[in-house]
Write a structure and sequence with these properties.
4 helices, alpha+beta, Nuclear Transport Factor 2, Chain: A, four-stranded mixed β-sheet, five-stranded antiparallel β-sheet, elongated
Length: about 180
Amino acid sequence: MPEGTRLISVDNVDGVAYVNFSRELVDRHPGGSTGELMTIDAVVLSLTELPEVEKVQFLVEGVKLETLAGHMSILEPIGREVTRIGQVMHDPDRLKRVQARVDAGKERWRLDPLEVARRDGRALGFSLQDSFELLSQEKDGMAVVRAEHNGRTFHIHLIQPLERGEDSIWVIDYVEWRR
């Protein structure tokens, strides 16, 4: 959120969270399509984790605007959509830190590709209410999970990025939409 942005109010009406921000959300927004998407996703993905919220309507000082920074329409309520199709980039140093935490007995769910798809998939727009099914898990450190989201089917491809085996972490490599 841009510095100085205040949350004025949040009201939930029939599954739509009306989120009212101060003018700084627009006036101080850094701009760019990626920045705008990140701002919108941060709010939508957070609020739609709540079971009673299906969509988010952005308001700025009580008024619907066309856009925050000129790239995405916010005139209508926005639902959780899978917004990250394609390759997922990973920081090698972060992967080593995650593996070290797993080796220390923490975050053991990262050893299960199905659970990684469920949990880490939330950052890509998937929801805990979506259905997930492990389609394949190979000894070469590759797995595929099918996810059903808003009536659409996706394949989440996972890899073991550091080593292969039952004690090695899984991460999402890429997501594809299946027609």
